[in-house]
């Protein structure tokens, strides 16, 4: 089995924190967070680790993970 990223779960993980506050704490532009939320861009591993520290979760929590047969990563 292999894994591929599914839907972004950031909106759920933000809870009551605003997108603007999260962007400020991440030291990224609001538009970057907006692209993550609209799934136009994926978070880098480094950003996922930083975000996980801010939101008190795990880096792997930012996406749904889908098991796929090895060699079928589409």
Describe, in plain words, how this protein is organized in 3D.
43% of the residues lie in helices and 18% in strands. With 74 residues, the chain is α+β, with helices and mostly antiparallel strands. A two-stranded antiparallel sheet has the order 1-2. Helix 2 packs across helix 3. The longest helix is centred in the last third of the chain and has 11 residues. The chain is elongated.
What are its keywords?
74 residues, alpha+beta, 43% helix, 4 helices
Widest sheet, order of strands:
1-2
Radius of gyration computed on alpha carbons: 13 Å
Put simply, the count of helices is 4
Give the biggest beta sheet: 2 strands, antiparallel
- Considering DSSP H and I runs of 4 or more, what fraction of the residues is helical? 40-55%
> What letter string, H or E per element, gives the SSE order?
EHHHHE
Helix/strand class: alpha+beta
Outline the low-pLDDT stretches.
none
Arithmetic mean pLDDT: 92
What's the overall geometry? elongated
Q: Approximately what portion of the residues adopt beta-strand conformation? A: 15-25%
Number of E strands: 2
Distance between the termini: 13 Å
